[in-house]
Amino acid sequence: MYRSIHNVVLASPAVIAIALGTTLIPVQAETLITQAASQDLDLVAPLNKYNQDFQVDPFHQVNNVNQLRDISPHDWSYKALHSLVDRYGCIVGFPSQTYLGNQALTRYEFAAGLNACLQQIERLIASSEAVFREDIEAINRLIQEFAAELASLGGRVDNLENGTAFLEDRQFSTTTKLNGEAIFTAITSNNPKFQGNRNSPERNNSNLTQSTFGFRTTLNFDTSFTGKDRLRTRLRAGDIIPPLQDQTNMGGLETEIATEGNLAITKLQYRTASIPFIYDEVPERFYLVLSAFGTGLDEQFFETFNPYIIGTKDGFTQFAIYNPIFRQPRGVGASIGYITSNRLKLAVGYSASGSGNEAADPSPGRGLFNGSFSTGVNTEIVLAEDWILGLTYLYSYSARDRVFLFGQTGSSLSSDPFNGNPTQAHNFGWQTTALINSQLNLAGWMGWTRALDASSDNEADIFNWALTFVVLDAFQEGNKAGLVVGMPPKLTSIKDGNSDPNSAWQIEAFYSHRVNDSIFLNPGFYVIVNPENDSRNDTIFVGLLRTTFEF
Can you give the pTM of this predicted structure? Predict the structure, then answer.
């Protein structure tokens, strides 16, 4: 904050330039030193220290008035600015190479600009260089007129420095920051009749509804060693259980967790830089992500092209967040990304399953490369401004009796098409996101999976798709309203076995109300028609109310 204020006030000293005058009568440095010694220049000593601590970035320094795009030789202030830059070089421009001379400034801002020129004059005096008598006289008048403001600024800086020192003495770490999140979720669902499937019996519950309440607390310890990188250690505790989980994989919640309130490490990940869209400013063209626990080939490694639905303050189900093909074996892995231009980014990644300590187990059929794993490549292509296309290929291998494709999004048959046999899956994804205008985002995806039984010649095809609509600043700045419509993963065909007889439809709507910067209220619902891709099953209705606290 101090640096921003400093840059702003130094960008407004045109009045100082006028006050210094334009008469060019050189005075010997020795005489000026004597004159300066008689003035109360120590009044601004605290402010001098402030300016030394927060130097202006050289990129913003103006060495020639012609660098300023909004100043022309015809402007009334051009001559004064030209003289001030040439003689003392104590003004700066904004990063956009503009001066914005018409902006109003307070007396405190004027005093800070005045102090910048005082510093330059003092440096000239100390090096025995010639300064102009009229400038010294003008400076003396300004010092007297703004004595109170200069003294006040010095006191403010002293107070800020004392407060900063107090916080530094009591901070948790010089390299690690703590941020967290607490989520409370109330859930009410109907109890539909199910005809049963391969993994669960027929169900006909007499209760009309079922209501639950759960929570999830997250603590992130983010450590940076270079200022651009990040080592994240995540701790979580909570119990949020999706409704009807004993009957179907569909409708799994993005925030679901079951630790019985015990705190557990759920992620340990290091990255050299952030993973932005390619039209964002990035510190490096290359980035590397290393994960020791809790990361897969989803938004942790790749861009998933649904930027306004992240699952903690907006959408609820796993299916609503991104293409289910990204939900492959996850745990230990690495990803390398390269931004080739402002229109293309490539990323490749590998992830071995961390479930049941599989990646760390040296037993046959387990470990980093012999157990369940996934690998693939993701491409981002800018088609037009605010319109991006993603093309994805992922290959996964799931060991025997450890097959669980697509997370909790699809039918039981699509999640394990070969009834526990080791499964190879070739996943192809097409994703897109477009900002139609300043308030409407349209995103969507299609996913096709070619699954192969590794113990036979059996094979199957699985398909899913979705469209998402998000209205930004809905009814109030900072709020969001969204709608997701799609078909969860469906086993459309299989060489030897039964495919899903019908197609399920999932419809989800939410509203995110921003109470303040730290609290969000998030009501919503989702409906699944033909759950388990079987029209004999009753429709699922689920209503949710979530409160998110960020700190």
Answer: 0.70
